[in-house]
Amino acid sequence: MASLHFLLRPSSNPNPLALPSRSRPVRCANERQALFSRIAPVYDNLNDFLSLGQHRIWKRMAVSWSRAKRGDDVLDLCCGSGDLAFLLSERVGSDGKVIGFDFSREQLLVASSRQHLLLKACYKNIEWIEGDATKLPFSDCSFDAITMGYGLRNVLDRCKAMQEMFRVLKPGSRVSILDFNKSSKPFITSIQGWMIDNVVVPVATGYGLADEYAYLKSSVQEFLTGKELEKLALETGFSDAKHYEIGGGIMGNLVAKR
Amino acid sequence: MVRVSRVLLRDARVGINKTLSEILVCPLSKQPLRVCEESGSLISDAIGVSYPVVDGIPSLVPKDGKILATDDIEKPDSDVALDSANKEYPSVGQSLSTDALFFCKSKWKITVN
Q1: How large is the ipTM?
Q2: Checking DSSP bridges between strand B34-36 and strand A126-131, what pairing results, if any?
Q3: What is the pLDDT of residue B71?
Q4: DSSP 8-state assignment for residue B4
């Protein structure tokens, strides 16, 4: 499995930073933020291990679908530790600009550290910003492309997030949203569930993060199908929307054009 | 032909580069932000909120914004910075909800004491 994110629903949890149990869903933005901050130190390693490195291929596909090109200004939402941002940086080059945007400062600090360690000259065009995906701090029509990897499923107000993406995109530009695929095929759903129960959670347990990763199954089940994502994008105002299933149907990538 | 790369001038005290500070806007009002070098923050004069810059990473999370006193808004950088550095202000998240605050200040120009 690739990078892991968890869906939160509105809650009245009195202790938002308490470690959630498997019997209590992860709710509210504070819990979600704390969760991603807790997994930040092992996030990259687990992504590689659990997906056998496949997440790198899916992320390259997501960047390719965004149509980002040399000299562009691009935005990577829910950037986490920066995988997609670094790929975008190589694509837009030193004449372009990449904004890596996330709500977890811990993840951003990991991304920033990687940026300084990797030493590629083009990576100097990346800037990191902490913020809320439903309240973007950018003017209208700012970006030539937007990517979002394993993020939309974890945003409480997906409609608002889509509206903000639409607002800050330049006309004719695309957003490329990679995430787990909520499949309408029972076989795919079974495979996803089995892998989470029998591979992801046991591995995460070794890092002391069993509970943090146990919610993946329900978050995928509560996510939107490819058709629903296309509908959401069109209702938001995008002129075209297409969802592609990849990774044998386990993953999916929505491409929407303003 | 020599291709000229974009020159990103980094303000050492605030820790963000000039180009970045020019493209960022207030997440609530969507109005431009002003760099306050003394306090190391980004100021939204439109709604009187200050957003911190920590380790060179702007924190533009609405609930983490600090409400500025009325006399700190639209002042020259040095005056605002001095007041901001010396006073503690409630965070946007601790007082009114961010959206309610924005609505009130923009509609009725309410003064925050």
Answers
A1: 0.78
A2: unpaired
A3: 58
A4: P
